[in-house]
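Re: the pair you flagged

First of the two:
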Amino acid sequence: MLCFRIENGKLKATTKPLPKLRPGWTLVRVRLAGICNTDVELLHGYYNFRGVPGHEFVGTVEQLRGASAAEKKKWVGRRVCGEINISCKALGRHPVCVFCRRGLKTHCAYRTVLGIIGHPGAYAEYLTLPVENLHAVPEEVSDEKAVFVEPLAAACEILEQVDVRRLRKAAVLGDGKLAQLIARVLLTEIPRVVMYGKHEKKLALARRAGIATKGVRGDASDLKRVPENFRLVVEATGSPTGLALALQMTEPRGTLVLKSTFHGAAPVETWPIVVKEITVVGSRCGPFDKALALLRSGKIDPTPLIARTFQLADAERAIAFTQQRGVMKVLLKA
């Protein structure tokens, strides 16, 4: 099969045999894969990554090993998306770790992560995942929508972590791909969501989805130019400079959710956290079922965020295009 590996900071095409399956695992033919900012960070040295990246995908199950005839009938031939964290049970570890025993599979002490830690990802014609990680994609949800399930689930995680029922407004810092999804998810529960960003075309996309927007410069001058405060602020700029502004904008006893993952240090003063008694919440993966429900209901349509679709064979050009200024979601078609 054709796949693309990150080696020494470059994406390179290679071919390799189809992977062998362990019992309870599936072979999935990739239909579409999304290029994420995390993939770009991996290219730049995040996690010292070497291997096949890509963790956003929709595909078709081709094989399922070691399962009953009924289970094979259920899955083989189905369109699926998949949770990216592979935990103790699927890895064959006995006994399972303390985090798995607590039901925190996404924090498994021995986990591998599709396209990020120790497991080849979706920049390939085929990938493997345990059947327990799969979610069937409803017929009403197109491939172009389903490829967003993983990042949309990450946005939904905020609603699992923070009680937003009494909030009348919230702020999202950043106007990129994840920030756009976060703002759309928050708007399903909060009457007013304000996105702060520095790219007018991206802010225009948010406004078309009913999200209020305000322009910022993305540098230290914003600390003097942005007077608003919010009980809930989500930092999703993908930049270390966003954190200082987020701390300033979070009101006393408010909640700051951190969604950015970037390679490098983020110098920041911690005194506002103490003085304003801010609750800081790290937020990562989230519930696929809720993301699929939002797509199926039509409450969220992420397809306006798609900038361009490349063939898998053009993955090198695709990831270079992704890094151009102002580009939103780029897809790979296998």
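Second of the two:
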Amino acid sequence: MENDRHPVPGVDYPRTFQEMDDWFRDDVGCRKYIYRLRWPNGFVCPHCDGVGEPWKMSGGLLRCQSCHGRTSLTAGTVFQDTRKSLRTWFLAMWFVTSQKNGVSALGLQRVLGFGSYETAWTWLHKLRRAMVRPGRDRLSGSVEVDETYVGGPEEGTRGRQTETKAIVVVAAEKDGNGIGRIRIRRVMDVSRDSLIPFVKDAVTPGSVVHTDGWSGYSSLVKAGYQHQVTVISHSKELAHELMPRVHIVASLLKRWLAGTHQGGVQNHQLDYYLDEFAFRFNRRHSKARGLLFHRLVQQAVAVGPAPYRTLIGTESRGQPPGQ
């Protein structure tokens, strides 16, 4: 798999399904790929930081030549403790990244022939968790920030009030007249204590943050940002005309949830779907599906395992979704 076979120098990914099928015909090929992604500069022992080619042992274990410590290739990755073949995981990741609008658990179950819907659902959530790149860069320049509400219609509520809907705050980077990168997070309310931490996590200090006149954003200048305020009620233009980027993102998010997932996403599971939406949106201009596959495998190696009990929990993960 030398790099000169690939359209982007230094990037190791299959360009077509045929190449993917050939490269990862068995777990041996998958393990070699994971090894290169996990230790791109050569093996480093997690026990003693020793370097050098490890001894390969039965059961897929690696043994350090310095301290003789044993390491599993998949320990600390999304693939940890899996009972399925790595090839099946790679097929799942190719299928997920090759579909423009994503896939449902039922769709993945059918394609991979899983006997259990729960297995497909769990795998998709594990992969969605891997769509958040550790140490990702924050947005910069000029950024629109606003909240939107996800869920069915409510009666008797107005403004920023909600009884059952999930509150999602969106940050959209300006790119000329278009939209650059985005960040999304589910928050518990629209207070300053919820909104300002999101901005700090999503946007580089010193950037221009464009919001409406909501008081929850009033301390942005104190937090180190240039704050551009547009009071929607004082303008003849509509909100989607004054802050078009966040409104476009919010509209696309709701359409995606209603289409691909048919509106069947529970509030406490929404974080994972926001991860996937942001991952896809931020790579919407990529024409190389194989590169998306590569990024997902790369991040699956980096993010750590996601036990089933954490996937079904009713609490937010406490970290900003989106990439």
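The first helix runs from residue 17 to 23.

-B.
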